[in-house]
Structures are given as structure tokens and as C-alpha cells.
Design brief:
Blueprint lengths: L6 H15 L6 H26 L8 H18 L3 H25 L5 H19 L10 E2 L18 H24 L1 H11 L1 H6 L4 H27 L1 E2 L1 H4 L2 H14 L6 H23 L4 H16 L4 H8 L8
Antiparallel strand pairs: 1-2
Helix pairs in contact: 2-6, 2-9, 2-11, 2-12, 3-4, 3-9, 4-9, 6-7, 6-9, 7-9, 11-12, 12-13
Length: 328
């Protein structure tokens, strides 16, 4: 069927066209919320490659966010290196870290919850290291200098308005979506799914399990690291306690769990739901004066999804929209 006559493609292209026009009518506050949605969706898709496609559970993905953020931010602060060049360094460091974690975990057959604990351990070790490393600001934080002309957009240096950051985040999210889709449709995608469903059976069929899982880890690490660079330049400040925190790892994966692990649209839908919920609860908490209401609601939301829709919201919504014929 032609792409233009495919209902699914039409819906997707219509959504993209609508998203591209949003800055024409939205103010900076709404744009900042949408940027949060997009970058959360991007990071969720990055984690989804490793967990959703290949079945390797990571609870320490904040490690790659932080490595990318600090590589891009520190090189920019100290040497004026453009973030896109710093991103290459951050992705290289993240791939190296992923190689170490994957090799230790897969060679010694550390699986399931124990592999998740291994990823947490590396994230925490790195947090402590950066907390005492003066070159990156240690616990005092690293602050990125603003542009000399705040009204002028400089895409090369990622300095500019909310509109510029919105389009960058939109481009990253669209690229991650199509890249994820391309991976699933290739042989490596089928190998990942085979390993996710039954690793022993995949091994018996002749799939190189170690190599295949390592590819998932390294791709996921590199993608997540790029998201970290974006966060550094969007927020303009970095603290080890926040960028490497367990809270960030959980926030990163929660949208994908709620939207639907292993699906393409799940991380996007989950990011929309959680960001909208978070903004609403933040406003509500400020009015009623109850601390922690956002975290409590997140926990309740996750429990309800796991109980009522264990496959996530997107598979359910997909069937309701009549898009069950292969749309992930």
C-alpha cells in the first residue's frame, strides 16, 4: 500500500505537521512543557532499544545522560567546543561505559534484576566521582554561559530561544522514532526480540547472543548520551546529584513503561501522559501545600497501569483507534 494511502502514515504525517506549527501559536511556557515531553520521549525511546527490544533491564540509564551532559557542557565551558562536537565525545565515553557494563554483565551471565543492580552501581559510582571532580564543577555544579544575544538563535552552539530548542527536540525525537523503527525491521531487531522472548532458544538457533545484546546496549547508550547533551544546553546547569540520580533513571523509563515497552509510540504517549500529569500535580501541590504529591501520583499511576493495562497504554489505544494491524 502506498505510504500516502496508509491511514497510519497519514495520521503520523498530520501529527508532525501540527507539531511543526505549534511555535506559531505557543508561548515560551507551553514550549518549555512540549520540549520536556519531546526530550522525555526521546530518552524513553533510547532506553526502549535496550529494554523493550532486547529485554536488558537497565535502572542506571542516568549514567549515560550524565556522561553526555558533562562531556558536552564541560568541553563548551572550558574550550568553547560546539555541543555537536562535544556530543561525539559524550557518545564515545558512554559507549565505553556501556561496553564495560555489558561485558561484565553478559560475560558473567548477570541477568534480570542483578543486571539492573549492576547498572545502578555504575551510575552511583560515577555520581560520586563527579561530585568530587573539580574540572566539572564537583558538587557546586557546572554552569553554561548564556549567549551574548539571547534573542539570536545559534543552532551550532545550541544557544537561543525556546523555539529553537523545540525544533531541535522535535527533530531528535522524530529521528529516534524512525531509527528505532528501522532497527526493528532489520535482522538485528528480530534477533533482539528473539533474545527478549527466550535467550536460550535464540542461542540454540545460532544467534550470537553476547554480540547482539552488546549492540543494543551501545546503541542505547549513545542515543541517551545525545539526549544528555541537549539537557545540558537547555537547562544551562549540571549537578551530579540530579543528572546521575536514581530519580532521573526512573523518570526516564517510567514513560516507556506506562506507554508500552517494546512499542514505537509507547515512549511518546507515556511522555505526554506523565508530563501533563506532572505539571498538573505541581500546580495542585503548590496550592494545597502537600510535598511529594507528584511522586505519590506517579507511583499510583504506574501501579494502575501495571494492574489494568500491563502492556501499556499504547497497545490499548492502538486497538481503540483501529490501528492494530502492525502499528507499534
Amino acid at each position: 500500500m502506498s505510504l500516502l494511502h496508509d491511514r497510519r502514515a497519514q495520521l503520523l504525517l498530520g501529527l508532525l505537521a501540527l507539531m511543526a506549527l505549534v511555535p506559531l501559536a505557543a508561548g515560551d511556557y507551553l514550549l518549555s512543557i512540549l520540549i520536556t515531553v519531546l526530550i522525555q520521549a526521546y530518552l524513553g525511546m533510547s532506553w526502549n532499544v535496550m529494554m523493550g527490544f532486547a529485554g536488558q533491564f537497565s535502572l542506571g540509564h542516568a549514567l549515560y545522560v550524565g556522561l553526555g551532559a558533562y562531556a558536552g557542557g564541560a568541553l563548551f565551558v572550558h574550550y568553547g567546543t560546539p555541543p555537536w562536537i562535544g556530543a561525539i565525545a559524550g557518545m564515545a565515553v558512554s559507549v565505553l561505559a556501556g561496553t564495560v557494563i555489558g561485558t561484565l554483565g553478559f560475560r558473567f551471565k548477570v541477568m534480570g534484576v542483578y543486571f539492573a543492580l549492576l547498572t545502578i552501581a555504575f551510575a552511583e559510582f560515577t555520581r560520586v566521582l563527579f561530585d568530587h571532580w573539580g574540572w566539572v564543577g564537583a558538587s557546586s555544579g557546572l554552569f553554561l554561559p548564556p549567549a551574548a544575544n539571547a534573542s539570536a538563535d545559534n543552532l551550532w552552539l545550541l544557544r537561543g530561544s525556546a523555539t529553537m530548542f523545540y525544533y531541535v527536540a522535535l527533530g531528535m525525537t522524530v529521528a529516534a522514532f524512525w531509527f528505532s523503527r528501522a532497527l526493528l525491521m532489520r535482522r538485528i531487531g528480530y534477533y533482539w526480540q528473539a533474545i527478549r522472548e527466550d535467550q536460550d532458544a535464540a542461542d540454540a538457533l545460532g544467534i550470537d547472543v553476547f554480540r547482539t545484546k552488546m549492540i543494543a546496549v551501545l546503541i542505547s547508550a549513545a542515543m541517551t548520551s545525545l539526549g544528555g547533551v541537549f539537557l545540558a544546553f537547555f537547562n544551562n546547569n549540571l549537578y551530579p546529584e540530579s543528572i546521575f540520580s536514581m530519580h532521573r533513571s526512573i523518570e526516564l523509563i517510567l514513560g516507556t513503561i506506562i506507554g508500552g515497552i517494546g512499542t514505537l509510540f509507547g515512549p511518546i504517549l507515556g511522555a505526554v501522559v506523565l508530563t501533563a500529569l506532572g505539571e498538573g500535580l505541581t500546580i495542585l501541590g503548590a496550592h494545597i501545600g502537600i510535598d511529594g504529591v507528584k511522586q505519590i501520583a506517579y507511583g499510583i499511576c504506574l501501579m494502575l497501569i501495571l494492574i489494568l493495562k500491563p502492556g501499556g497504554l499504547w497497545p490499548w489505544l492502538r486497538s481503540r483507534l483501529g490501528l492494530a494491524g502492525g502499528t507499534r
